Automatic annotation (TrEMBL):
The active site is at D440. The keyword Cytoplasm does not apply. It is an enzyme of class 7 (translocase). This is Phospholipid-transporting ATPase. NCBIfam families: ATPase-Plipid (TIGR01652), ATPase_P-type (TIGR01494).
Length: 1325
């Protein structure tokens, strides 16, 4: 390793001028330096000027290594802050956020009203609960923001090397400024967006990892401009003075346009020279870069926006319930206010209403009395709105996510060490109501682990394997296919990315095929046309490929196995030229017959060696013979000297070890110069490279989607095209991913003319990508088809079973993919989305009518024909679907449409027809769709059908779809983490949707429905007792309860039990939830939060409030204490409040489906808390107003038999109606889950939800214990409980092959079983 580092440093030294001796040689005229002007367009003036220039809004000018020149512009610093608050803004901004909620704002107004003379309650009644709610919320906000602040501080204070006075100095990130030159060491992170100047690697490249950006761990290559390669050492870097003119800061991670102006030359910049903040340096000792964007202007910070805020449907319906409670409150206040205006009269002389009285009780102005009483009653009845509801729901949702979803072992993927992740807690219950799922295919339904499986070359199909989808299709047709693993040929190879079996192509056998030249071009295209980076030793067995996508790695692996081994993708040092000792003067050069116009000086160290000739062939570092140079020997004393050689240096060289090309068994290393790369993007759907062969041949290789490549083929050879199309259809039917390969020979003049346009387009600052695409169109034409590849992407484990389960749950699944229709249909079959009994409605642009219009070439006519075809198809299919459903309601229907037709179907004039047909189908498959179309389809169902939607995907192209649906699920797969970063929930495998939806989603929905309706019930019950008391007080607004009773009712005496129910209530176990997926339909129908359910709770709240008030008030009319005094207002209200607390807590237990010790503790604790409070509160006398009202009240009550009788009887009478209703409902009108409860009431309980699905990582003892825990248990037929006996364990263990010591009673058990079976044997025979 040290030797390698020394070599790297030596090369860097050579570039910078080497030792002083070399510098002297250069200055003495020993070297002739050729230079060629770079043809680019300058954006600024003719010369570099160090004073600030006026700049256009779209151009950013940065002076490198010159802080004074950048200072007047005032660029932002590099310190970042992700906190929501600071010390000054925390309280105002935090309170503003809290009072944006209607309920909190309402209670603020009530608290203000309670401080006025018209309020019948003490301000503490409303201020205390509001303060507690705000305090809890603000503490939560402060804790989260403090964590963000600590993270920001650690990042801002990280150290980086910055160039100061010709040396590197360690400086915190936050002190970096635009234009500074920094050094980043291996495994270090880039502190800002940097312009890549140079690297210690000999070819000016570095390797970066973008895991922090998009989650992708495969290394990516970045290449510095050749002009800046020499700036490695600080002495040389300090001389660098350049000007960067580039785009303004933006959030586009994958684009960058700009120019570097240095030494009066303008050189275009691309994303290849941009190193983004947050990425890390790999496999490179260090790099040097210039700071371009800092702090919040970096691309990653401009992308760090929050996921679009989503509110669950249940929460929106809760708003309607709150409005209904407001309406109820208003009605109660109006009734009381009108009653007060009518009741007030001077005839009630004992009220003292004669003479001077308050306005609120002045009989002479009844209107004012009505208005003031209205405000009085609003404060009195304010408890009808549950102030602690939102806080309780937030707490429940947060714990559900962090403790249940994130820690569910059934959603943990051991292979990737990835648990489920809830990125938001706002949508837990939404998971229990999903009706439509929109799924990507690649990486979501499939594994995204690509294997080269088949191919077609020159019209001949190769590959004998059978895909999983072909096997499934054969089984549907009744054909049995044996496993072919044992029948593979001797030449078959199965490794990562390659699973191919055909002796005709392996081990050089392709030379004997009818089309060996086509095979050769096919393999070369695979080995050259890519952006793959090789890693590891340069041997076929040990090399590994880093690729942007698994497809590319599979294609390069295929080329390797076919004998075209790509092992070097960039310039690296090879054997150096060996010359005689001395200083040599170059007399003549002849580099490659003058084909290359750009040259570069490279300093090489030469070593003494005997030589008999003065003309030596010079070998470049990449082992290409460049020229023969004649040398004039002059004496020199040094044993090792520096010789300057003018040699050919290309931007990139691909080295391929080709086997069997010249003859069977021959192996040769061939270097191909990559002159231009036309990169792949979602619009082009193809990638091309222009390369030069060692013999000077210029070739364009192209690979891409079949429809894109076929459009660009040269005329002629129709038979080849036809056969290739048939092969593509066969590959698609087998579920394989296809690409077409083509090439084109170029002549020198043709290429140079095009290259000038390419350089101009690449130098453009505006619309660079668009101009590059236009230039690419000029050369990507008249292609010659070589063949096509077929790559298998296998289904993920458990996908068909998961889809069947979700379909049984009433969920409709749509697949939105960019693959061809044939591939998508077969994937749908393999996933059980469609079967042979499914009626398919196919809308395709591949019809004869559309083809005829395309042949005419009129775009307007083509659009009209396609639109008319789509319109007619939608209409006819919709009518046919309705007829089919009316005749056979159970029959499944499926719509299959391609992206071209979908574009017209999403037109506003046809959108309603598309939605109608889609909703009639059980499944929909959209092929060849773009990311935008995915989002449009999700929005169509979300807004048009008003159904709960869920989108799931794993790639960046799924982000818009994920954000468009109600719930977004990201799969942390092979395509990076962009989908996860934009999602609401993240899982590792599609099959985990079963647990996420049917278990956690369903439980969350049931629990929150119960929590909300119970809050509504208990607050309405409490408030209505106060309302009935108003009728007894002349509607005066006299309070029935003490202020502290009213304050603590929601926050202490009834708060904890409802949270426990929201966390632990389960109607059925997780296994039964998945065993009976039909239970999920109750959530889709919203069965537990309908107005009918709310009305039932409201009715019993009304009934119980009457019982609480009138039973206690009327029954205590003649009651008296031990002293003989009759019971007063505060005695009755304390007794009534005690009944309310006991009853509402017991009512919650009646609503529970499963009761744990936490239920008992919380309910008993809440009731005990009330009595502890009243014992202490009644025993204290203070000087505060109204405290004397309840002094010693509880002690007086407890001295009477009447109190105990009331506490026992009133809750029983109040709950009798609920008990009767629940019994009748369960017997006559049961919910689905209640039916399942009765079916499995005698089943053993699931004592532990924790199961270890994969045991490969367990020790032998742990595996044995786990195997024992998984053994079947015997159940008692009498008690309904399972019992565990060592005898049964050992017996069942022996049946399962698990080693457990046998017990004596096992012998008797086995003997008894044999005896029972013996009489049955003759009967069976």
């Amino acid at each position: 390793m040290k030797a390698r580092m020394k070599d790297m440093m030596r090369v860097a030294t050579a570039r910078l001028g080497g030792e002083q001796q070399a510098g002297a040689s250069s200055s003495s005229g020993y070297v002739r330096r050729d230079s060629t002007a770079v043809r680019t367009t300058r954006l600024g003036g003719d010369s570099l000027r160090r004073q600030p220039q006026p700049q256009a809004p779209t151009v950013r000018t940065v002076y490198c290594n010159d802080r004074d020149a950048n200072a007047p512009v005032g660029y932002k610093g590099n310190s970042v802050s992700t906190t929501k608050y600071n010390v000054l803004t925390f309280l105002p901004k935090g309170l503003f956020e809290q009072f944006r909620r209607v309920a909190n704002l309402y209670f603020l107004m009530i608290s203000i009203l309670s401080t006025t003379p018209i309020s019948p309650v003490h301000p503490v009644t409303n201020v205390v609960p509001l303060s507690l709610v705000l305090l809890v919320s603000l503490i939560k906000e402060a804790f989260e923001d403090w964590k963000r602040f600590q993270n920001d501080m650690s990042i801002n204070n990280a150290k980086v090397d910055i160039l100061q006075d010709r040396d590197w100095e360690s400086t915190p990130w936050k002190r970096l400024q635009v234009g500074d030159i920094v050094r980043i060491k291996k495994d270090g992170y880039f502190p800002a967006d940097l312009l890549f100047l140079s690297s210690t690697n000999p070819d000016g490249v570095c390797y970066i990892e973008t895991a922090n950006l998009d989650g992708e761990t495969n290394l990516k290559i970045r290449k510095a401009l050749e002009k800046t390669w020499d700036y490695v050492l600080p002495e040389k870097v300090s001389e660098f003075k350049g000007e960067v003119q580039c785009e303004q800061p933006n959030n586009s991670l994958y684009t960058f346009t700009g120019n570097l102006i240095v030494d009066k030359q303008t050189i275009p910049l691309s994303p290849n020279q941009l190193l983004l903040r947050g990425c890390s340096l790999r496999n490179t000792e260090y790099i040097v870069g210039v700071v371009i964007f800092t702090g919040h202007e970096t691309k990653v910070m401009m992308n760090s926006m929050n996921v679009p805020s989503k509110r669950s449907t249940l929460e929106k319906k809760l708003d309607k319930l709150i409005l209904a409670l407001f309406a109820t409150l208003f009605m109660m206040c109006v009734i009381g206010a009108i009653g007060s205006g009518v009741f007030i009269n001077q005839k009630y002389f004992y009220l003292g209403l004669r003479g001077h009285v308050e306005d609120q009780f002045n009989p002479k102005n009844r209107f004012v009395v009505t208005i003031l009483t209205m405000f009085t009653l609003i404060t009195l009845y304010s408890t009808i709105i549950p102030i602690s509801l939102y806080v309780s729901i937030e707490m429940i949702k947060f714990i559900q996510c962090t403790q249940f979803i994130n820690n569910d072992i059934n959603m943990y993927h051991a292979e990737s060490n990835t648990p489920a992740l809830a990125r938001t807690s706002n949508l837990n219950e939404e998971l229990g109501q999903v009706e439509y799922i929109f799924s990507d295919k690649t990486g979501t339904l499939t594994r995204n682990l690509m294997e080269f499986f088949k191919c077609s070359i020159g019209g001949e199909m190769y590959g004998t394997g059978i895909t999983e989808i072909e096997k499934g299709g054969a089984e549907r047709a009744g054909i049995k296919i044996d496993n072919d693993e044992g029948k593979r040929s001797a030449v078959a190879i199965h490794e990562k990315g390659f699973n191919f079996d055909d002796a005709r192509l392996m081990r050089g056998a392709w030379r004997n095929e009818p089309n060996p030249e086509a095979c050769k071009e096919f393999f070369r295209c695979l080995a050259i046309c890519h952006t793959v980076l090789p890693e590891g030793e340069e041997t076929p067995e040990k090399i590994s490929y880093q690729a942007a996508s698994p497809d590319e790695a599979a294609l390069v692996a295929a080329a390797k196995n076919f004998g075209f081994f790509f092992y070097r993708g960039a310039l690296a040092l090879g054997p150096r030229p060996k010359l005689l000792e001395g200083v040599y003067t170059i007399i003549e050069t002849n580099p490659c017959k003058g084909y290359m116009r750009e040259t570069e000086h490279l300093l090489l160290r030469v070593i003494w060696e005997q030589s008999k000739t003065s003309v030596i062939p010079i070998i470049t570092p990449d082992r290409i013979p460049v020229s023969s140079v004649a040398f004039d020997k002059t004496p020199h004393d040094a044993g090792a000297i520096e010789v300057a050689l003018t040699i050919l240096r290309t931007p990139t060289t691909v080295v391929v070890r080709e086997s069997h090309v010249e003859r069977m068994g021959s192996i040769q290393d061939v270097s191909y110069e990559i002159l231009n790369v036309l990169e792949f993007n979602s619009t082009r759907k193809r990638q091309s490279v222009v390369c030069r062969f060692p013999n000077g041949r210029l070739v364009l290789y192209c690979k891409g989607a079949d429809n894109v490549v076929f459009e660009r083929l040269a005329d002629g050879n129709h038979d080849m095209k036809k056969i290739s199309r048939e092969h593509l259809e066969q590959f698609g039917s087998a579920g394989l991913r296809t690409l077409c390969l083509a090439y084109r020979d170029l002549n020198r003049e043709q290429y140079e003319s095009w290259n000038e346009k390419f350089v101009q387009a690449k130098s453009s600052l505006r619309d660079r990508d668009k101009k590059l695409d236009e230039v690419a169109e000029l050369i990507e034409k008249d292609l010659i088809l070589i063949g096509c590849t077929a790559i298998e992407d296998k289904l993920q484990e458990g996908v068909p079973a998961c889809i069947e389960t979700l379909s049984a749950a009433g969920i409709k699944i749509w697949v939105l993919t960019g693959d061809k229709m044939e591939t998508a249909i077969n994937i749908a079959y393999a996933c059980s989305l469609v079967n042979n009994d499914t009626k398919q409605f196919i809308i395709s642009s591949e019809t004869d009518t559309i083809r005829e219009a395309e042949d005419k070439g009129d775009p307007i006519e083509i659009a009209r024909v396609i639109k008319d075809t789509v319109k007619q198809s939608l209409k006819n299919f919709h009518e046919e679907a309705l007829r089919s459903l009316s005749r056979m309601p159970e029959r499944k229907l499926a719509l299959i449409i391609d992206g071209r037709c979908l574009m017209y179907a999403l037109d506003p004039t046809l959108r309603v027809d598309l939605l109608g047909l889609s909703l009639s189908c059980h499944s929909v498959v959209c092929c060849r769709v773009s990311p935008l179309q995915k989002a449009q389809v999700a929005s169509l169902v979300k807004k048009g059908a008003r159904k709960i939607t869920l989108s799931i995907g794993d790639g960046a192209n799924d982000v818009s779809m994920i954000q468009a649906a109600h719930v977004g699920i990201g799969i942390s797969g092979q395509e990076g983490m962009q989908a996860v970063m934009a999602s609401d929930f993240a899982i590792a495998q599609f099959r985990f949707l079963t647990d996420l939806l049917l278990v956690h989603g369903r439980w969350s929905y049931l629990r929150l429905c119960k929590v909300i309706t119970y809050f509504f019930y208990k607050n309405l019950t409490f408030t209505l007792t106060q309302f009935w008391f108003t009728f007894q007080t002349g509607f005066s607004g006299q309070r029935f309860y003490d202020d502290w009773f009213q304050s603590l009712y929601n926050v202490i005496f009834t708060a904890l039990p409802v949270i426990i129910v929201g966390l632990f209530d389960k109607d059925v176990t997780a296994s039964l939830s998945k065993r009976y997926p039909q239970l999920y339909k109750e959530g889709i129908r919203n069965s537990f939060f309908k107005w009918r359910v709310i009305a039932v709770w409201g009715f019993f709240a009304f009934y119980q409030s009457i019982v609480f008030y009138y039973f206690t008030a009327a029954a205590s009319r003649h009651g008296h204490g031990s002293s003989g005094k009759i019971l007063g207002l505060w005695d009755v209200s304390t007794m009534a409040f005690s009944c309310v607390v006991v009853t509402v807590n017991l009512r919650l237990l009646m609503a529970c489906n499963s009761i744990t010790r936490w239920h008992y503790i919380s309910v008993a604790g809440s009731i005990v808390a009330w009595f502890v409070f009243i014992f202490i509160y009644s025993a204290i006398m203070t000087s505060f107003d109204r405290q004397e009202n309840v002094y010693f009240v509880i002690y007086v009550l407890m001295s009477t038999f009447f109190f105990y009788l009331t506490i026992l009887l009133v809750p029983v009478i109040a709950l009798f109606g609920d008990f009767l209703y629940l019994s009748i409902q369960r017997w006559l009108y049961p919910y689905d889950y209640q039916v399942i409860q009765e079916m499995h009431r005698d089943d053993p309980h699931e004592y532990s939800m924790v199961q270890l699905p994969e045991t490969s990582h367990l020790s032998p003892e742990e595996q044995r214990s786990y195997a024992i825990s998984m053994l079947p248990r015997e159940n008692s037929k009498h008690t309904g409980f399972a019992f565990d006996s060592p005898g049964y364990e050992s017996f069942f263990a022996s049946q399962q092959g698990v080693g457990v010591p046998h017990k004596p009673w096992d012998v008797a058990r086995r003997a008894s079983m044999k005896q029972r079976q013996q009489p049955q044997r003759p009967a069976r025979s």
